[in-house]
Amino acid sequence: MLASRWPTARALQKTPLQCLHQASYTSRYIQTGSRARLSKGTHLTLLAPRHVVPFHGSTRHLAATVESPSSHETPQPYSPPTSGILARLPSSWVPYAELIRLDKPTGTYYLFFPCLFSTLLAAPLATPMASPLSVIGTTALFFSGALIMRGAGCSINDLWDRNLDPHVTRTRLRPIARGAITPFKALTYTGFQLLAGLGILLQFPTSCLFYGIPSLILVACYPLAKRVTYYPQAVLGLTFSWGAIMGFPALGVDLLSNSAALTAAGFLYASNVAWTVLYDMIYAHMDIKDDVKAGIKSIALKHDAETKQVLTGLATVQIGLLGAAGWAAGAGPLFFAGSCGGAALTLGYMIKKVNLKSVKDCWWWFVNGCWITGGVITLGLGADYVVRYTKGEQTATGTEA
């Protein structure tokens, strides 16, 4: 606020030009927190420094007003969900559901697809060949595990990022960042999730324990990677693609004694790592401006100018390794045409069409690209498995006859 005294008659006799000159002179003093003398007997006292004071002269008096400096738009406060699955939960459950991204299941799907790919690729290599019911049951267990472990991964990520998330527009209202869940409660909640994940893992053959537990190291390390390297997506790829190995032991295929299966699993795993880096590079473009301010590293920042070239290279590597996995597993033409050919078409179209400068467009392709590319790969693998299983059944029937 600004306090002023009434001007003297002498001050009122000044011309508009003189008043303007004097107002400018006075404003400079006011902006530095000083006290300015307009004329004899007239003082202006500054109570709020750094505010600009425009003056308006009149024949009756000299009035002074203060305008606040411009500032960024105030961020919208958190508001409880009013639609979707979260709106149906008790209010005390909502922060925990938000912590595991229950209302944003795309990450669960991306974690599940490598498990599905490996299950379909491993099924014909099992002895005897895995039945459709066995494949369906194994797939259902994998989906349950993906749902739980993705939630645990989100919890671990938010614990690591609790001091970074408040500085990023998209993440500032996450439960830990806004104080809805304390770090201790989040850590306890994560422990229960990991125990639930262990319960799912115990439903598989015992050998799966030796393959599954080491992946927890990668889950814990990914949030750290974004602080020390511009390629945290590579660590995320190693983590999210782990299911590309798990389908083989889940169906009783011993990777250590079956060189064809081990080779196929290795190529499939590497293919999924490339796919993960590809889609997460698009995802990272949504936060590219905030990441710069928060000091978060990503491949999108490192290769912003040549992102589409990098995406094209990743897609080429992904499809090549996927084809090598099918070759090692003895897959037929339906796999190469459906899975490899379909992936080439869908990825090529996505890379061409995605607008990396649009947050909305990046999000659309991240969500839908999961189903488009993951779907065609699944269809090719599934068709190949059905053909090989049918031939195996016919051969077995002919032998018995």
Number of helices: 16
> What is the global morphology?
globular
Proportion of β residues? under 5%
Structural class: mainly alpha
The succession of helices and strands, N to C, reads EHHEEEEHHHHHHHHHHHHHH
- Termini separation comes to 101 Å
| Total E-strand runs | 5
Low-confidence stretches: 1-17, 23-73
Strand order in the largest sheet: 1-3-2
Q: What can be said about the biggest beta sheet?
A: 3 strands, antiparallel
| Overall mean confidence score, pLDDT | 82
Helical content, roughly?
A: 55-70%
How large is the radius of gyration? 31 Å
Verbal overview:
The protein is mainly alpha-helical. A 3-stranded antiparallel β-sheet has the order 1-3-2, with helices on one face. A two-stranded antiparallel ribbon has the order 4-5. The longest helix is centred in the last third of the chain and has 42 residues. The N and C termini lie far apart (101 Å). This is 4-hydroxybenzoate polyprenyltransferase, mitochondrial. It is a multi-pass membrane protein.
Topology:
Elements: E1 2-4, H1 9-12, H2 16-31, E2 36-39, E3 42-46, E4 55-57, E5 62-64, H3 94-99, H4 106-122, H5 132-160, H6 183-201, H7 207-212, H8 215-228, H9 232-240, H10 243-250, H11 259-284, H12 288-294, H13 299-302, H14 307-328, H15 333-353, H16 359-400
Antiparallel strand pairs: 1-3, 2-3, 4-5
Helix pairs in contact: 4-5, 4-10, 4-11, 4-16, 5-6, 5-8, 8-9, 9-11, 10-11, 11-14, 11-16, 14-15, 15-16
